[in-house]
């Protein structure tokens, strides 16, 4: 990016930040103004009551004399005392009105702290008309929604994680018990040992994926950039999965020219292997898997498509979650970590990944910036 473009981008970000701060200040000022007006109104009412009380006392002759004589001191003291008493009483009685939204906020926060993530903040029509209170309710409700979703994801993560790790462990234990019991033919023994080896490798791969995901989630800076042939890299990934797509007699369509990109080569290799592996896995026998590459201004788009079962609209967002599997029976291979890793790796490259599913075709598109 040229210095001029960088300067314009920074100027744009700065302008957005200034507008946000200005909006925030105006909302806070309106909130201060509401409470200020209320306090001022209480003060005026208290003074009016005090003056009225003094006038009544004067009418009944309790207070006599003009402003020039010594009774003026008594009047001032009396007005002050009456104002203090009336103002204190009105503040106690009417103080609940401006504090009601604050009390509502505290009550909802206590519910959130107690684990009730269904709590939502809702002000009446009078308070909602003020931008500050409207912003407060929107921010709180957004926070509560995010916490509720996070709690649901945490529960799903624990359930799926437990299931995925338990299955191979139970298989290994059962097969090892059979081998240990003896009375097996050499063929059976070899078969069981092979199954134990496969399940052990599956468990090791699962643990590696979890560690890789944790590592990649904590990574903030993209390193080890190099310039390489993107088209050649994708062709190599297709060859690595040859056994899988040949076993299902899948037709491969690779429709792209030669493209070069500057990126982390190892990360992108893992991205393509995950996407291609998923495409092959969810394609039916004799299905089709296609890869296209298109270049436009400032970006390269790689699309991996496969025929077969579609992803329902309600599951589109869920597929990026850790340990989520569209096949809830867990009958298919995999542990639901691949797409979470892919999404994070693409984001580290300042790119984006999207999915489209319909009419018997599912397509994942990765957009990567190019210099």
Write a concise synopsis of the structure shown.
The protein is an alpha+beta fold.
Q: Care to describe what's here?
A:
Mean pLDDT is 75; it is low at 1-24 and 328-332. Helix content is 63%, strand content 13%. The chain folds into three domains: 3-149, no CATH class; 153-218, Orthogonal Bundle (Helix Hairpins), CATH 1.10.287.130; 226-369, 2-Layer Sandwich (Heat Shock Protein 90), CATH 3.30.565.10. It has helices spanning 3-59, 71-94, 96-113, 125-128, 131-181, 186-218, 230-240, 242-247, 265-281, 338-348; strands at 226-229, 251-255, 260-263, 288-296, 299-307, 352-358, 361-369. It has a five-stranded mixed β-sheet, covered by helices on one side. The protein is α+β, with helices and mostly antiparallel strands and 371 residues long.
Succession of helices and strands = HHHHHHEHHEEHEEHEE
Q: Level of helix content?
A: 55-70%
For the report, how would you describe the main beta sheet? Answer: 5 strands, mixed
β content, as a range? 5-15%
Which strand order does the major sheet show? 2-4-5-7-6
Keywords:
elongated; Helix Hairpins; 5-stranded mixed beta sheet; 3 domains; disordered N terminus; 371 residues; alpha+beta; Heat Shock Protein 90; 10 helices
Question: What does the secondary structure layout of this molecule look like, with pairings?
Answer:
Elements: H1 3-59, H2 71-94, H3 96-113, H4 125-128, H5 131-181, H6 186-218, E1 226-229, H7 230-240, H8 242-247, E2 251-255, E3 260-263, H9 265-281, E4 288-296, E5 299-307, H10 338-348, E6 352-358, E7 361-369
Parallel strand pairs: 2-4
Antiparallel strand pairs: 1-3, 4-5, 5-7, 6-7
Helix pairs in contact: 1-2, 1-5, 5-6, 6-10, 7-9, 9-10
């Amino acid at each position: 990016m040229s210095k001029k473009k960088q300067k314009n981008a920074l100027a744009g970000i700065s302008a957005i930040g200034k507008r946000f701060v200005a909006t925030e200040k105006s909302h806070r000022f309106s909130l201060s103004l509401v409470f200020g007006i209320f306090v001022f109104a209480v003060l005026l009412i208290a003074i009016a009551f005090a003056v009225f009380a003094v006038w009544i006392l004067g009418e009944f002759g309790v207070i006599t004399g003009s402003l020039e004589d010594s009774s003026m001191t008594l009047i001032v003291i009396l007005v002050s005392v009456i104002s203090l008493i009336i103002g204190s009483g009105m503040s106690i009685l009417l103080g609940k009105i401006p504090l009601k939204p604050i009390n509502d906020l505290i009550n909802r926060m206590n519910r959130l702290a107690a684990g009730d993530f269904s709590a939502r903040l809702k002000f009446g029509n009078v308070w909602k008309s003020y931008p500050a209170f409207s912003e407060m309710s929107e921010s709180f409700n957004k926070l509560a929604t995010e916490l509720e979703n996070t709690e649901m994801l945490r529960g799903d993560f624990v359930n799926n994680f437990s299931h995925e790790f338990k299955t191979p462990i139970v298989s290994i234990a059962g097969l090892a018990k059979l081998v240990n019991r003896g009375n097996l033919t050499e063929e059976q023994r070899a078969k069981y040992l092979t199954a134990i080896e496969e399940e052990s490798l599956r468990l090791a791969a699962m643990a590696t994926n979890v560690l890789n995901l944790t590592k990649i989630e904590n990574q903030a800076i993209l390193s080890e950039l190099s310039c390489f042939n993107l088209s050649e890299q994708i062709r190599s990934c297709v060859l690595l999965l040859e056994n899988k797509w040949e076993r299902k007699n899948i037709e491969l369509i690779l429709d792209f020219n030669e493209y070069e990109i500057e990126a982390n080569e190892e990360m992108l290799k893992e991205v393509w292997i995950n996407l291609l592996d998923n495409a092959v896995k969810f394609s039916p026998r004799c299905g089709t898997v296609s890869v296209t590459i298109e270049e436009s201004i400032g970006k390269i788009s790689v699309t991996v498509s496969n025929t077969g079962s579609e992803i329902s609209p309600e599951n589109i967002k869920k597929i990026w979650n850790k340990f989520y599997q569209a096949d809830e029976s867990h009958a298919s291979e995999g542990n639901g970590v691949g797409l979470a890793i892919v999404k994070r790796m693409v984001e580290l490259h300042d790119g984006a990944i999207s999915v489209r599913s319909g009419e018997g075709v599912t397509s994942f598109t990765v957009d990567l910036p190019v210099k």
